[in-house]
Design a protein that fits this description.
Order of helices and strands: HEEEEEEHHHHH
Structural class: alpha+beta
Number of helices: 6
Distance between the termini: 242 Å
Domain Mce/MlaD: 36-114
Transmembrane segments: 7-28
Protein name: Phospholipid/cholesterol/gamma-HCH transport system substrate-binding protein
Number of strands: 6
Pfam family, one: MlaD
Keywords: Membrane, Transmembrane, Transmembrane helix
Strand content: 5-15%
Radius of gyration: 66 Å
Shape: elongated
Helix content: 55-70%
């Protein structure tokens, strides 16, 4: 009788514990279901390090976990990751998701970056919800993270590194090395020549300084001379200018008087030119003819005597 009562007590305690555990599990499941919100994230990159149950953080604060990771048969370049986060997480329009590595373990998690304050929450539209929510839950847009950008740009980076290595190889070829060595030798020769001629260069610089100093003094003297010339022109030049003006005015008056005189004598000069000068020419011709006649008479008297003017000339005697 006593053994039977012990078995009943143990069985009752075990059954009570089982019921309590089941009730606790149900309570947790109900609490978890009411306190979470599901979102889809479409990554156009590899999701290495992510797995079902991986953490989801919002600005570094854990807010949920990954529920599933699925391939998209129609669009194989995308990978759909469904997450569940607490409903109190401010998932607003402008919130973005990135893949962030956790240390050097190879494990990754999803990092949610906050949106500007005041933005509306991300929700499926009432009209045509499949356009923005193809699987019935809102979609959080992605933003390439540092690791994703590095992985995506790795081929281009490797190509650039390879090109750079080829160019360095061409630059450091034997021919270019010989050219560089020759250039360095020439530079060394030039520096040695400059070092040898440093006294001459110093003397040239000293002469240049002296020349510049003398040029400055000469410029100052020229300035003083210009000031003196301006002063002389302003003080002594004014009387000369006034005398010159008076002389010019007198000359203008003389020219006016001469012009008036010429205007008055022009009729008399016209008369002389038209009447007197032709008569004088005739008189000169008559006088020239008279002088020629007188010259012929005088020559005749000289040869034949005064009788030549009265009778005829005497014939010479004839001798047989």
């Amino acid at each position: 009788m006593e053994t039977r009562s012990n078995h009943v007590l143990v069985g009752g305690v075990v059954m009570g514990l089982i019921v309590a555990v089941i009730a606790f599990i149900i309570w947790l499941s109900q609490l978890s279901g009411e306190d979470t919100q599901r979102y889809d994230i479409f990554f156009k990159q590899a999701v290495d390090g992510l797995a079902k149950g991986s953490a989801v953080t919002f600005s570094g604060v854990p807010v949920g976990q990954i529920e599933s990771i699925n391939l998209e048969p129609k669009t194989p370049e995308f990978i759909r990751v469904r997450i569940s986060v607490r409903s109190t997480t401010p998932i607003l329009q402008g919130t973005t998701a990135t893949i962030q590595g956790v240390g050097f373990t190879g494990v990754s998690q999803i990092q949610l970056d906050p949106a500007p304050s005041g933005a509306p929450p991300i929700q499926c539209p009432e009209t045509d919800p499949l356009s923005q929510c193809p699987y019935g839950v809102p979609v959080i847009p992605t933003k390439p993270g540092a690791l994703g950008q590095l992985l995506n740009s790795a081929p281009e980076l490797l190509e650039r590194v390879s090109t750079l290595a080829e160019r360095l190889t061409e630059l450091l070829s034997d021919r270019n090395q010989a050219s560089i060595a020759s250039i360095l030798e020439n530079v060394q020769d030039i520096s040695r020549s400059l070092a040898d001629r440093s006294p001459e260069i110093a003397a040239t610089l000293a002469e240049t300084r002296t020349t510049l100093r003398q040029a400055g003094v000469a410029a100052e003297q020229i300035g003083q001379l210009a000031g003196t010339t301006n002063q002389m022109l302003n003080q002594d030049g004014k009387p000369l200018v006034q005398d010159l003006r008076k002389t010019v005015q007198s000359a203008e008056r003389s020219l006016a008087a001469l012009e008036q005189t010429l205007n008055e004598t022009r009729p008399a000069m016209n008369t002389v030119a038209t009447q007197t000068l032709p008569e004088v020419n005739i008189l000169v011709r008559d006088l020239r003819a008279t002088s020629e006649s007188l010259r012929s008479i005088s020559e005749k008297i000289d040869r034949q005597g005064a009788g030549a003017l009265i009778g005829s000339p005497k014939l010479p005697d004839y001798e047989p």
